[in-house]
Amino acid sequence: MSMPSYMSEPWFALLQAACAARSRKQVADALAVSAPVVSQVLNASGKYGAGQAKTDKLAERVLHTYGRYPCPHLSEQKAETVVLSADECRAFAHRPAPAGSPRDMQHWQACLQCQHKGHTAPPAPKSPQAPRPRVLHIHPQHPQE
C-alpha cells in the first residue's frame, strides 16, 4: 500500500514535529480537532489513509499553529531575514497596543499591516453549546384492576 500524498507535504512534517515534542492530545487541543484525527492522519489510517477524508483544513490549522513566518519588520531592522514561529508572531501581532516602548509600538503597528497577521490569529473561542432541552416522557397510566 502506498503512502498518502499528504505525508510528503511540509505541514505534515510540522505535525510530526509537534507530536514528537508533546502528546497527541495536546497537539489536537491546540489544533481544535480530536486526538483520533491526529492519530489517523499521522498513521495514515481510517478515512485519511483510505483517501476518503480531506486534510485541507487540518493542514491549514497545522501551518497556522506550528508554522514559521518571516517578519518583515524585524528583517528590515536587522538587514537579514528574521523568521518567527507562529506563536512568536501571534504574540507580537495579536497583543494590545504597547504603550511603554516606541520600538514595540512600531513593531505592533507594522504587524497591523502584515500579511501574516491573519494566518497567526488565535483560534476563535468555541461558543458554548446551549443545554439540550429536557424531554419529559409521559407514560399513560395503566388502570389498576
Give the gist of this structure.
Helix content is 49%, strand content 4%.
Q: What spatial order of strands do you see in the largest sheet?
A: 1-2
Low-pLDDT runs: none
Shape: flat
Instruction: Give the helix level as a range of percent.
Output: 40-55%
The helix tally amounts to: 8
Tell me what the structure shows.
With 145 residues, the chain is mainly α. 49% of the residues lie in helices and 4% in strands. The protein has 8 helices and 2 strands; from the N terminus they run αααααβαβαα. The chain has helices at residues 10-21, 24-31, 35-43, 46-49, 56-66, 72-78, 86-93, 102-113; strands at residues 68-70, 83-85. Strands 1-2 form a two-stranded antiparallel ribbon. Helix 2 (24-31) crosses helix 3 (35-43). The chain starts with 9 loop residues before the first helix and ends in a 32-residue tail after the last helix. The model has no long low-confidence stretch (mean pLDDT 86).
Helices, strands, pairings?
Elements: H1 10-21, H2 24-31, H3 35-43, H4 46-49, H5 56-66, E1 68-70, H6 72-78, E2 83-85, H7 86-93, H8 102-113
Antiparallel strand pairs: 1-2
